[in-house]
Amino acid sequence: MSAKAYVQQDQPPGVPPLSLTGERTLPDVPAENYWYRRHLVIYEWIARRVAGQRVLDMACGEGYGSGVLAASAAGVVGLDANPEAHEHARLRYRRENLSFARGLVETYGEPGQFDSVVFLQTIEHVQDPQAVLRHFRDILVPGGTAYVSTPNLLTLGPSGAQKSGNPWHLKEYRAEEFRQLCASVFGSVEILGLHHARKLAVHEYALKAGWDRVHHTLGITQRFYDWFTPAIRQSDFALRAGPLDRALDFLAVCRA
Predict the structure, then answer these.
(1) 198-225: pLDDT as tens digits
(2) In this structure, how many other beta carbons lie within 10 angstroms of the beta carbon of residue 152?
(3) In the chain, which end has fewer C-beta atoms inside a 10 angstrom radius, N or C?
(4) 214 part of a folded domain
(5) What local confidence, expressed as pLDDT, does residue 101 receive?
(6) Is there a domain that residue 210 lies in?
(7) Digit-coded pLDDT (tens) for 91-128
(8) pTM of this structure
(9) Average pLDDT of the chain?
(10) Is the peptide bond before 142 cis (omega within 30 degrees of 0)?
């Protein structure tokens, strides 16, 4: 596949497209659609729970998630340290109740400034995750909520491995490890798991039955996934309480 296939397509006039680096996911890249939808379903779930709130979207990347949150929240700040991502987000996602800032997740925000903090698929990237969670607790109002997601080591990495091959990840978690990390800072922690549903669940069963050998033998691999991957939608994932060991990602709902 050409390098162009990993650059955002059809961006609005004046908005510079971003390229995939492996550090963040992007919309408008057909080959990346699985990962984009996998993240988007979590943002949409959170958006239904932050209506009327002041929300900080930490490490917002391209900005699409901040835009989703702003559809229901009273106000959203999307924060990212990367200058290209920040500029792209600022130019692309424009609402009166949405702004973007450059800064570090370890230091941005004032005590009691936000009702909710959202931190998706990033805690595995940070050097001191406990310190980051303490900072989130401090900038929340009393009773505020931090929503923190991370991939499940057991389904992301090879069997028995302590880490996947993702070079951007410093630490990947099993469910109980992640729960303990969050509970070391927050008084109430609920862990939910993201799972395949609908056609992704069927595809998962097909892989177990040997689909990889079939499409390779028939010579249809490229044609099939050129159709299948862009067709994935949020409804092809389900967020539920368990079983966590088989989850793709964990979402911690943390309250002080």
Answers:
(1) 999 999 999 999 999 989 899 999 999 9
(2) 21
(3) N
(4) no
(5) 98
(6) no
(7) 999 999 999 999 999 999 999 999 999 999 999 999 99
(8) 0.94
(9) 95
(10) no
HEC string of the chain equals CCHHHHECCCCCCCCCCCECCCCCCCCCCHHHHHHHHHHHHHHHHHHCCCCCCEEEEECCCCCHHHHHHHCCCCEEEEEECCHHHHHHHHHHCCCCCEEEEECCCCCCCCCCCEEEEEEECCHHHCCCHHHHHHHHHHHEEEEEEEEEEEEEHHHHCCCCCCCCCCCCCCCCECHHHHHHHHHCCCCEEEEEEEEECHHHHHHHHHHHCCHHHHHHHHCCHHHHHHHHHHHCCHHHEEEECCCHHHCCEEEEEEEC
- CATH number of 70's domain: 3.40.50.150
Cβ-proximal residues to 15 (8 Å cutoff; 6+ apart), any chain: 88, 91, 92
Domain interval for residue 60: 3-196+240-255
